[in-house]
Amino acid sequence: MLDDAQEPVLVFINGRSGGNQGIELINGFSRHLNPLQVYDLSAGGPLPGLYSFRNVSKYRVLVGGGDGTVGWVLSGLDFMKDHLKCPVPPCAVLPLGTGNDLARALKWGGGYTGEKVMQLLYAIEDADRQPFDRWNVKFKDIQQTEGADECKTVTMNNYLGIGLDAQIALDFHQAREDHPEKFNSRLHNKGVYLQLGVQKTFSRDSSAELHQVVTLKVDDKFVKLPTGLKGIVLLNIESWGAGSEPWGSQIEEGFEKNTYSDGMLEVMGLSGPMHLGRIKGSLQNGIRIAQGTNIMITLTNNLPVQVDGEAWQQTPCTMEITLLPTQALLLSKSTKPHYQKGLTNRQARSLIDKSSETAALIDDTNFSSRRTRQELKKGSSASALFK
């Protein structure tokens, strides 16, 4: 058995993230850790790794990829929770995506800068555990009749956008779909986002002002939207748009500080592309509208919507945003100068253990990632994987 001091790390890296960085990191971690501790998410998703750790009572998770990759692993933990001895392990983030807003909010930075594997392992050992709110977003089509199929639901970790910022995210997604070979570096991806924002600034804007086509209710109270809004954003974390902090830190009557563990979302507005650009340049904040726990939004027109960077064109609907009952546990990077230290033998063994005792607990036999994908497509519960 593992002793109380041991807390091995389970590493998930998206091999397709960060250009060649993802593959290089998979190889680097594989040289230091038990092979059963390192998984390439692009080759089967998170469930094979979580299944192999199902009998480990205490462990940490490192997720290497963009914010969407972190959400993928957290959703995997949700799916497997009834079959894991440790259903809420603390998770650290290694930023390999484009915006990396969740990594920024947790002080892991805006991108991987070449740290050595042992440095990263020490950072995980030294990190602070933080409870983290997550949100359920339910979409119900306005035309939907009673008895129709279930509403579409998604989980939100970072933010939700309607209008302007969602349109830019949608345009970016379309550009990447059209020319995937060009989107192979974080720098290029950021450049495309910047270009799309500039195009919005200088193009004629014929979109409706959102106060005409959107109604907002926060904690059972209708909230009047300011006129002239082109975008609405709901924030769970302070970082948005690849590092901007649009809620701001100034004290204002009726509003609290933006944190990811207070059970509230911040609702802010964007007046247009120029305003968005000034926010990203740290010259201005978003327009504060409301804060609350239970939020209902009604769209009466087709509008672009994005959740954690995944964008689509949404038909008229009601959107109900509610707090999930269980918080995640994420790791915030310590501000101590850990790179000047070294792992002690005990700390190293806590994270890196190639012993037969660990191998006996970590088991990936009789598990097929192909079968996992088939069960997920059918909407099966995790129990189907254990038959």
TrEMBL record:
This enzyme's EC code(s): 2.7.1.107
One GO CC term on file: membrane
Locations listed in the record: Membrane
Entry keyword Lipoprotein: no
GO molecular function, one term: ATP-dependent diacylglycerol kinase activity
Highest taxon of source: Eukaryota
Stretches assigned to the DAGKc domain: 4-141
Reactions that this protein is recorded to catalyse: a 1,2-diacyl-sn-glycerol + ATP = a 1,2-diacyl-sn-glycero-3-phosphate + ADP + H(+)
InterPro entries: ATP-NAD_kinase_N, DGK, Diacylglycerol_kin_accessory, Diacylglycerol_kinase_cat_dom, NAD/diacylglycerol_kinase_sf
GO BP, sorted A to Z: phospholipase C-activating G protein-coupled receptor signaling pathway
Pfam families xrefs: DAGK_acc (PF00609), DAGK_cat (PF00781)
UniProt keyword Ribosomal protein, yes or no: no
Family recorded in the similarity comment: Belongs to the eukaryotic diacylglycerol kinase family.
Name of the protein described by the UniProt record: Diacylglycerol kinase
